[in-house]
Design goal:
Layout lengths: L1 E3 L4 E5 L2 E4 L18 E5 H4 L7 H15 L24 E6 L11 H13 L1 E7 L1 E2 L2 E2 L9 E7 L1 E9 L2 E6 L1 H7 L6 E5 H4 L5 H10 L6 E4 H7 L9 H19 L2 E9 L15 E10 L6 H7 L4 H4 L1 H9 L5 H6 L1 H10 L3 H14 L3 H17 L2 E3 L2 E3 L5
Antiparallel strand pairs: 1-14, 2-3, 4-12, 5-11, 6-9, 7-8, 10-11, 13-15, 14-15, 16-17
Helix pairs in contact: 2-3, 6-8, 9-13, 13-15, 14-15
Length: about 400
């Protein structure tokens, strides 16, 4: 299968070029002051066929979050099916949600929330699965795998403002079951970041690439089905531009996970019949990329393999060579340094200020860490909390 170069700035390989840039820029100034809230969504639901507005997708984010509470504490494994959580007598779920939670940061337009609820009541939801007979997949006479579609409504009914500012939605039993069906795996993503996205394709891509370490390939036909766009953007180049390219641009700007991608071309004479020069693009391979500049302190610390990637060479060498830190010592205290950078503290200038006392101390690294923590508390209002630090305005 041949590959076509797409985008710019990525590592070059023969006939292949990823679209995008470095996944771990350093130093890490400019990190978002946002606390993440991770949720888990079934892979079946992440890849289900639907074409919704971004407000409807945000409502689905909330439903996934609420559903997750039903399975908190369980350890997810590939092939492990949590099964249906029966809330109503027939397995449907009646969920009460403050309307302000459906809209995204700073949005108080209740009409948009109401329209999102109505859209989920009117749009069918499809799950596509391979057709099976006697435990074996079914193929047509041309050798193509056959699929079955299961369709149903996402929401059965709703009540808006039954309490001031509150919507009560009744989730279809089949939808609730698919949200919690982890038999084909799951996707884990940052809900706070997801709620900031403004494009539906960005939201769908964010779920697919978040916390993934391996590339994933989807055919153009599968992407069209997944996003309900079989009849939109007939030219493949237009489809890629209006979905994948726009999603990448928004994720690069806002999200802790984005992607590079490579388009793959068919070598089939039949697929390329009548074409001159460029071959037909038949699939896209996505390479998940961490976006450190869009991560929180905790996410950065968890993402990096070496303190050098966050501290930068000058600060890294200063701490090792002058203040007697070990690499493990830097790794153990990385959250302190990242918090200081995030708060706006000039760490290197501060180190030179405390150097006379630090270098006479019995434990220079301990003196440095204690001094930074005191300065963060007294001058920047940073508090120690469970698992790390909180800047003013953070919970």
């Amino acid at each position: 299968m041949s590959q076509e170069k797409t985008g710019s700035g990525g590592p070059a390989k023969p006939r292949t070029k990823r679209s995008g840039g470095s996944s771990l820029p350093a130093p890490a100034e400019g990190l978002n002051v946002v606390k993440p809230r991770e949720v888990v969504e079934s892979y079946i639901f992440s890849t289900s066929r639907r074409n919704l507005s971004i407000y409807s997708e945000r409502l689905l984010f909330r439903l996934v979050e609420i559903a997750q509470r039903q399975v908190q504490g369980l350890r997810f494994r590939d092939g492990y099916d949590i099964g249906q959580v029966s809330i109503g007598p027939l397995g449907d779920a009646e969920v009460e949600i403050p309307i302000r939670n459906l809209l995204g940061p700073g949005n108080t337009n209740y009409v948009q929330a109401r329209n999102a609820i109505m859209e989920l009541m009117s749009r069918p939801y499809f799950v596509e699965t391979p057709k099976m007979k006697n435990g074996q997949p079914v193929y047509d006479e041309d050798g193509e795998l056959q699929f079955e579609f299961i369709g149903h409504q996402i929401l059965n009914d709703c009540q808006v403002n039954v309490k001031p500012g509150v919507a009560v939605v009744n989730v279809n039993a089949n939808t609730w079951r698919e949200i919690l069906n982890f038999s084909k795996g799951f996707r884990r993503f940052d809900l706070t970041a997801a709620m900031m996205l403004s494009k539906t394709c960005s939201a769908r891509m964010f779920r697919l690439v978040s916390n993934q370490s391996s590339p994933v390939t989807y055919s153009i036909a599968d992407l069209r089905r997944m996003w309900g766009m079989e009849d939109l953007y007939k030219k493949t180049s237009d489809f890629i531009k209006r979905t994948i390219v726009e999603a990448k641009e928004e994720l690069d700007e806002k999200a802790p996970w984005s992607f590079d991608y490579v388009t793959n071309c068919s070598a089939s004479d039949e697929a390329n019949k009548g074409r001159r020069g460029r071959k037909e693009i038949t699939s896209v391979t996505f390479f998940p990329v961490r976006r450190v500049v869009n991560m929180t302190v905790g996410q950065v610390v968890g993402a990096v393999d070496s303190p050098l990637m966050v501290l930068g060479r000058e600060l890294y060498d200063l701490l090792l060579n002058k203040f007697e830190f070990t690499v493990q010592g830097l790794r153990n205290n990385l959250m302190v340094f990242v918090t200081a950078k995030k708060a706006g503290m000039d760490v290197q200038a501060f180190l030179y200020d405390v150097a006379p006392k630090a270098l006479r101390a019995t434990n220079p690294p301990g003196y440095v860490i204690g001094s930074i923590e005191r300065k963060l508390k007294e001058e920047f209002g940073v508090r120690k909390v469970a698992g790390g630090f909180a800047l003013p305005g953070e919970e």
